[in-house]
Design brief:
With 109 residues, this protein is α+β, with helices and mostly antiparallel strands. It is 18% helix and 39% strand.
Length: 109
């Protein structure tokens, strides 16, 4: 399961609408890919489609879709949004990560 904070929900809905997506029917696709200063990095896009192997979750009225491989790295993660003067944008609070980089966009297990 992947959770979505209230701040992240507001920003996801705003950005989805701006990009022509419908937050009530479309998905936030969250994944993990090789790269970044700690070895693995997070990937977040909006998507209208799902494949047979995708896992689908809904939290805080946001539909999240994760591919099977990435799911293993993301179980228990909370998607948050940090704005303000030192805001970083979307932040993944991943309890599985042993080490993260300073920018919070990559991690290792």
């Amino acid at each position: 399961m992947i959770k979505v904070s209230d701040q992240a929900k507001k920003k996801v809905i705003e950005l989805m609408t701006d990009d022509g997506f419908d937050a009530t029917t479309d998905f936030v696709r969250v994944g993990v890919k090789s790269g970044g200063c700690s070895g693995l990095s997070y990937d977040l896009i909006f998507d209208k489609n799902q494949s047979e192997t995708d896992k689908i979750f809904e939290d805080n009225n946001v539909k999240i879709i994760v591919d099977k491989k990435s799911f293993l790295y993301l179980v228990g993660t909370t998607l948050e949004y940090s704005g303000g003067l030192n805001g970083k944008g979307f932040v993944f609070n991943n309890p599985n990560a042993n080490r993260t980089c300073g920018c919070g966009e990559s991690f290792s297990l």
